[in-house]
Each structure stands twice: as C-alpha cells, then as structure tokens.
C-alpha cells in the first residue's frame, strides 16, 4: 500500500473551473501586492509564509524579500502602477529607523497605494503601545500584528477597488483598531 502526502491548502478562488491550482509564481492577473522586509531586517520566515498565503488567495505577489530599503519599494511601485498595497514586515525591532525614509517618499508622491506595516515593531518584548502612532506619522497607512488581519485588510482594499464595499467596508465586522488608517 502506498501513501501520497498532500498539501491540504484551499483551492484559490481564481483557479479556473476544473483547472489546476496555479503555481507559486502566482496568477499575473491577480491584484498586485508588493511585499518585503524592512531595510535592516534579515528575518524571512513570516515573509515567505505571507507570500505563500497571498498567492494561494490569488494575489500577484512581488516579493522583494529581506533587507529591502524604502527606495526599492518605491522603485517597484513605479514598475507596477496598479499595485493594491505595499506590505512591509519588520521583526528585528527596527521598524522606525528602517521606515524613516517613507515620510519623504510619501511627501514626494512616490507611493501610489496604501502602505501596510506589520510584525514585531519595536525592540524588546515590552511594548510602549506607541509603535503604531509613530509608524503612522512616518507614513504607514495601516499597522498590523497578525497575518489574519493582513488578509482581511487586503480583502477589504480589493473590494473597495472593485466597488463592492458597502458603508464601512465589507470587512467592517472584522475591523480592529489596528486596521484603522491614520487620519
Ligand atoms: C530565526 C530567527 C533569526 C534568524 C533569522 C533567519 C532568517 N533568515 O529568517 C537569524 C539567526 C538570522 C536572526 C537574527 C537576528 N535576530 Co532573530 N529571531 C529568530 C527567531 C528565533 C524566529 C523568528 C521567526 O522566523 N519566527 C517565525 C515567524 C513566522 O514569526 P515572526 O517572525 O515572529 O512573525 C509573526 C508576526 O511577527 C507577524 N508578522 C511578521 N511579519 C509580518 C508582516 C506583516 C505585514 C504582518 C501583518 C504581520 C507580520 O506574523 C508572524 C506570524 O505570527 C526569533 C525568536 C522567536 N522565537 O520568535 C528571533 C528574533 C525575531 N530575533 C531577534 C533579534 C534581536 C535578532 C538579531 C538582532 C540578533 C543579533 N543580535 O544579531 C538578529 C537580527 C538580524 C537582522 N539583521 O535582522 C529578536 C527580535 C527582538 C525584538 N524585535 O525586539 C527575536 C524576537 C529574538 C528575541 N526574543 O530576542 N534571527
């Protein structure tokens, strides 16, 4: 008797009827998400998990990987004018230092979409509670902690772009304070 292991992952919604699950190269027609890890940061496990999950959900993920400075996110966004969001992870605690150039890039009009920042956003396990406010001032539109929140938010952005969102957005029921954009 033989046993064949399988990856028990949900079939992407973009899979053609009766068709095969798309490869990890993703569906080029899906909404574009630019993903990366902040400039000083070498932690890639969450980055790879996020890329995998988003591709399974039909997003076209352009993954810039670890140690990506703001200017590379900007250059990549210029190459993908229809980009839905820029998603930046930071794990090593240096999000503020790494993302300081974001403010100037936004002020120059170089960021055409929401910027979502998430991960372990300051040094040490004891957080001040001020991390999100500082990052919002630097130009982050959304500051999150969990991958579930990210998926919900991207779904909402996708629905808004498609004109499907009702008052408060279709994901209002799952909206958490962390999802609230800076004013
Ligand atoms: C593996 C690891 C490393 C590896 C990384 C290998 C690699 N290429 O990925 C190596 C050895 C290189 C490393 C180096 C360092 N590390 Co390290 N590392 C870890 C470790 C053990 C696991 C991290 C991991 O992969 N976790 C699994 C993933 C899935 O979880 P995660 O990264 O925490 O991400 C979760 C959330 O943060 C969130 N998330 C993450 N990204 C994003 C993005 C978005 C948009 C959203 C919404 C959510 C989100 O979702 C994930 C799932 O819940 C952690 C300790 C730990 N047990 O967590 C320390 C840890 C992250 N490292 C730490 C530190 C300090 C360092 C170093 C500075 C150590 C040193 N003095 O050299 C360097 C920094 C190097 C650099 N330039 O960044 C600290 C960070 C502390 C902080 N933020 O205050 C930790 C927490 C260890 C500790 N307790 O002190 N590290």
Written account of the structure:
- The chain is α/β, with parallel strands linked by helices.
- The protein contains five helices and five strands; from the N terminus they run E-H-E-H-E-H-E-H-E-H.
- The chain has helices at residues 45-56, 70-79, 95-107, 131-138, 147-162, and strands at 32-37, 60-63, 85-90, 115-119, 142-144.
- A five-stranded parallel sheet has the order 2-1-3-4-5, with helices on both faces.
- Bound molecules: cobalamin.
- Residues 40-46, 49-50, 87, 89, 91-93, 116, 118-120, 123-124, 144, 146-147, 149-150 line the site of cobalamin.
What would a concise description of this structure say?
With 183 residues, the protein is α/β, with parallel strands linked by helices.
Give me the strand/helix succession: EHEHEHEHEH
Q: Tell me how many strands there are.
A: 5
Radius of gyration: 17 Å
- Reported by name, the CATH topology is Rossmann fold
- Helix content, binned percent: 25-40%
Nearest-integer average pLDDT = 82
CATH homolog superfamily: Cobalamin-binding domain
- Separate helix tally: 5
pLDDT < 50 runs, ≥5 residues:
1-27, 169-180
Approximate strand percentage: 5-15%
Main β-sheet: number of strands, strand sense, barrel status? 5 strands, parallel
Shape: globular
At the first level of CATH, the class is: Alpha Beta
How many domain modules?
1
Bound molecules: cobalamin
Name given to the CATH architecture: 3-Layer(aba) Sandwich
Structural class: alpha/beta
- Measured between the Cα atoms of the first and last residue, the distance is 61 Å
> How do the strands of the widest beta sheet line up side by side?
2-1-3-4-5
